Amino acid sequence: MATESHGAASDVVSACLDANGSALGMPQLCGEWVWNQVFWLVIALVVIYFVLARIALPRIASVLAERQGTITNDIAAAEELKRKAKEAEAAYEQALADARSEAQAIAQKTRDAIKADLDKALAKADVEIGEKTAESEKAIAEIRASAMENVEVVAKDTAEAIVAALGGKVDAGKVATAVASRMKG
Amino acid sequence: MATETHGADKAAEAGGLVFHPMDQFIVKPLFGDGAVGMFTITNVTLWLFLAIVTITIMMVVGTSRRAIVPSRSQSVAEMAYGFIHKMVEDVAGKDGLVYFPYIMTLFMFIVTANFLGLIPMSFTTTSHFAVTVVLALAVFLTVTILGFVKNGAGFLSLFWPSSAPAPLRPVLAIIELISYFVRPVSHSIRLAGNVMAGHAVIKVFAGFAAVAAISPLTIVAITAMYGLEILVAFIQAYVFTILTCVYLKDALHPAH
Hints:
The complex is a heterodimer of chains A (185) and B (256).
Chain A: H1 34-165, H2 172-184
Helix pairs in contact in A: 1-2
Chain B: H1 2-13, H2 43-61, H3 72-92, H4 100-117, H5 129-151, H6 169-208, H7 215-252
Helix pairs in contact in B: 2-4, 3-4, 3-7, 4-7, 5-6, 5-7, 6-7
């Protein structure tokens, strides 16, 4: 490495270099270079220390703390949102249950109303049917009564005609009594 | 090592293979050919400066938008931050977090310098003992002083293993004491040695590329070695940092 700059022996300025500018032994053990290295090393270390301790490390520490804070906040926000979602779900379930029970109540009410109407209609129909039946029975009774009367009249007339035809004297009162007694029997 | 390079020079004159694996570690002035004094602007200065620039781009420019949802560059900075922050908290404890900026400085410097050193033709600052010894001594001295300031004489209980059997305690105390003072040595040599060895091996392989017959093998070897070096660059920065955290823990809580 050093050979380019050192051609002749007269250029050699160090006891640690040979005539060609190559190292004699270990350059690490060359005493005359030590203090140069120590001097510049101390300067470099001080500079690095100030660059790190004054600028870089506080900055990185604040960035890391900020990131930690952000992560913590985000996790808290996520927890909050999760809690809200659970609440919303519970509210939804509640609303659903309410709606269901309300629907059941409405259905029950409607069923009751329909049943009441139906009962009323049935009762009315029963009454009407009863009236009709009574009317019919009355009509039948009338018809039956009139039929009996007619039979009595026909029987009386027939009896009178038969009496007349047989040459007897028709006694209306006797015939009527006889017919009536026969019909009762 | 010195004799090898001499031999290589002679071989170069004879037209054979040329090995200068250690030349990449030479410190030289950026401007002119003068001697290297304490304040000379050298290639060390350049690559330390580039490390500062890289760290600034990564950690400051990358995070300039302060986005809640990070961009790629911001993620890198945040990952580096989180990685070291967690390491300090796990190893040194909550009260160690006060020293987090210092440990972050160490880690960012070492990992950046290691990776910058992997750029071909670059100069690897962390391959020099001068650099790693300063880092290790800074850790050692800080931790030792901190230990006595925080715990007073109680810091010495670090060397007194109270859970061991009583007759063994003085022996163990001596071992603990020696291992304590070896810490900065192993701490610094581990980093520089790993980085230097890998780079030197790559250079040796590169020297073989001059022989046409084995040059394809050389490319494979350099590629594999480079992959390993990428691993080493990160792992050594990690090891240095985590050991710093362990030493810090000893200073804050010396009891075994």
